[in-house]
Amino acid sequence: MASPAQDLVLDRAIRDWVLLPLTFIMFASGLIRHYVSQLVQSPPKPQPILVIREQRAITRGQLLRANGSHLPPSAFVALKSHLSTAYDQGTYLKAPPPPDGASAPPANPLGDPAMMDGMMDMMKKQAVGFLPQTVLMYYINSFFNGFLLTRLPFPLTIRFKDMLQRGLDVPDLDASWCSSISWFFLCSFGLNPIYQLILGEDNAAGDMQSMQAMQGAGGMPAMPGAPAQDFVKLFKAERENLEIVEYQWVCEGVEDRVLGKFLQSVV
Predict the structure, then answer these.
(1) Domain of 232, in residue numbers
(2) Number of structural domains in the chain
(3) Predicted TM-score of the model (pTM)
(4) Which pLDDT score, from 0 to 100, does residue 22 have?
(5) Could you give the angle at the alpha carbon of 150 between the alpha carbons of 148 and 156, nearest 5°?
């Protein structure tokens, strides 16, 4: 005997007037959210040259430790000595280092224009990502609550029933059937790959990107009260890392290695 879930047939009007329009609305809302987010976002302001130099100085030491084996011994030793001396003397610091034993005064985040601009951009992205989703959820709860929209083309276990049939209370219904509220959440997260294909990886259309924007991801400044990077300590740590780095020139013994491969190919 067939179960009631197998004999259930939905009216085509549900597909034409609920399922397809709801999917289109979710897709269009993501596109609108992306383009509105681009409109309200302030253009990035160039950082002072001293700030960029301070940040890139750490990168120079990291690159030397990672790729130093490609340099000849004399060049590696000279560059290592130069960076170690610069780190120790604070040559690349944007401000003179504090005296020995003294701690640098904490920076005022509210007095930094870049920090204030970053906070405003974060609030704009939160509004652009949060308000449309709230309106859509209220709209679906008001007009499509209790609707059964579609059935997934593959069987599912009973554990998926609560996730796919939100707003419905039908114990005998198969777990592969999907309600309108569950379809809303499936579209919210399932359309992210399509947005990435159309808009690129760095987009504000999907819910995951919106949540990252709310958390300050994507190069956003830290929130007020967060400790700023102490480049004096970072330079000191990088100098210590350069002192203990293991160096071995990649061209050392290259003649023997090439000759060995040649002999193997001949044999």
Answers:
(1) 12-264
(2) 1
(3) 0.58
(4) 87
(5) 100
